[in-house]
Each structure stands twice: as C-alpha cells, then as structure tokens.
# Entry
Amino acid sequence: MKAKHRKVLAVSVTLGVAALITLAYANERRAVAQDDAQRAQYASQIVKRWGPQIERRYGMAPGEWTDQMIGTFGASDVGNLRRAARAGTFDEMTGALFGGSSAANLPDIRPMQIGDTENDLVMTPLPPCRIVDTRVAGGILTGNTTRSFRGWTTTDFISQGGSATNCGIPENASVLLANVVAVNTANPVGYLTLYPTNTNRPNAATINFVGSDIANHIALKLCRPGCANQFTAFSTSNTHLVVDIYGYYMEPVATPLDCVVNTQTGNLLNLNLINVTSTCPTGYTATGGGCGGPIGLTVASSGPAVDANGTPTGWTCGLTTSIIGGLLGYEVDATCCRIPGR
# Structure
C-alpha cells in the first residue's frame, strides 16, 4: 500500500508540475501575442499618419515601405513603437523607432553620452564581405550619373555582384565600415562619391581619381528606415565600383544592470550600538540596502557606506538590541550593481 501511495503521489506531483509549466507557457504566449497586437496597432498608426511623407522622402508607396519595415516593427520595443506612433514630426518618429531622439532635430554639436542612441553608436566588426561589384553585376557606372545600391538585405547581394549571404548586416543599420574601390576608371581626373539615398549629393569626394584601382576606407552612412536602397554612388567618370564591408554601426541595445545582493550577518552580544557594513564586491556600486533581525533589534541608522570619493561601496546599519547579552542575529544587505562588461 505504501509503494502504491508513493506512486500515486509521484504521479500527482508530476501532473502538478506539468500543469504549472503549461500555465507558465500559456501566460508567456498570451504576453507575446499581446505585444504583437500592440506592435501591429502602432505600426498601422505610423503608416497611416506618415504615408505622404514616406512617399516624398523615399519615393515609394506606404505599403511598400511597410514591407521594408516588417523586421524593424517586429523587433522594436513596444514602448519605442508607442513613442513613434505619438511623435510630432517624421524625424522624431524615425528616431523613436531606434530608441532615441532623431539626430535631425538635434544640434550638430552636442555632448556624447554613454548609451546615446544617436551619437554613441556601437561598432560591430564583421569578416570582410563584398556587397557591390559592378564587374560581376550591373555593369560600369556611367560618368555624371548616379546608381543606388542596397546596404543591407535579408537574403544576399548577388544582384549587386556581391556575396551570396547578407554579410551579417542587420536591418536598418546606421553606418557601414567599408572599403570602396574604383576599378578601370576611364578618366584619370575626377571623383566618386557615396552618400545616403535620401540626401542630396554632398560637395565631397569618397575617392579622388589619380588613375585606376583607387581605394578608400570610409564610414558609409545609410538611408533608413525602410528605404528601398540605402546608398547612392555618383562618379564623374566611367568606372567600375567595388564595395567591401568589415563592420557596421548601430544603436546600442539596452541591457540590464548586473546586480548582486551582498549580505553581512552576525550576533549582537551586548546593548551597545554597533555599525555593521555589508561591502560590495570590487567593481560594483551600492544602489540600496537594508537592515533586519529578530524582535528586539533596533535600527538606529541605515544608509550607504561611501569611500573618499563619495562613491557608495556598501550599506551600513547602526544596530542595537534591547535583550541583555542577546545572541540574536542580524542581517545587513547591500544591493550592488555595475554596468555589464569586463
């Protein structure tokens, strides 16, 4: 009977655990579905409101732009999409999609801040990868004309004479680190310029011709979001164009703080007031703390412990007890955090 009882109990526990897992999974699925529904709602509001602006800026119908933006909408934080849907200008809307204010609305000269989503872009290196080779596809660039190219794709760059992969470039990357080469240039004097497709051609050269097969390393700003093509090339001479990339810049992704709770315990042996400090590990900063213990414990003070520079390095509690000779324990907690990294 005991063995049978244990078997029934084991089955009951197993079913209970399975039910909890199923419930947790169902709750997670509901949360995901709710987020997806909100994303669709905000995306629809964005496209409906800014359709005419999209057509003017990018030369494409709102529906085509929406197709280009599916990946961005799906990966965006719901809060950022909400801010984008409520933005007052088109530039504010596009900036909000990437988690920050649009650079178009900010002064040209402004301080750098860690995590700034417009100025503190994160560079990610990539293995060298070709995205354009007009000798393979597209043919020579004709002098004094322009041609536009893709700076990212979900598939490959074969149609541009490039890689059979997407080179690891994410959707709507901000800047490409690129090596640009002018090959078989017809005229020895002139220049080649690469620039975002949604901007006017700048009065500046990417490459100045002094013959043929001239190369230059550049940071190539791309048109975004949802542009059909991301950059344009203009050449004063007939020339072939080769573009190899070896990295990209993108807005930083928010990561949670690395936090631990450090605990100091002990006993109060007399009625005297004592200060007990729980110290954070090296590299961590105290962001909070607390004092605890049994009945009879009195917390006379509670606050951060700081070093000579005023940096919180732990948490200090002033403790005493009303129980004579008590061996009652205490606990001092320090919540210690740092920005993730080495």
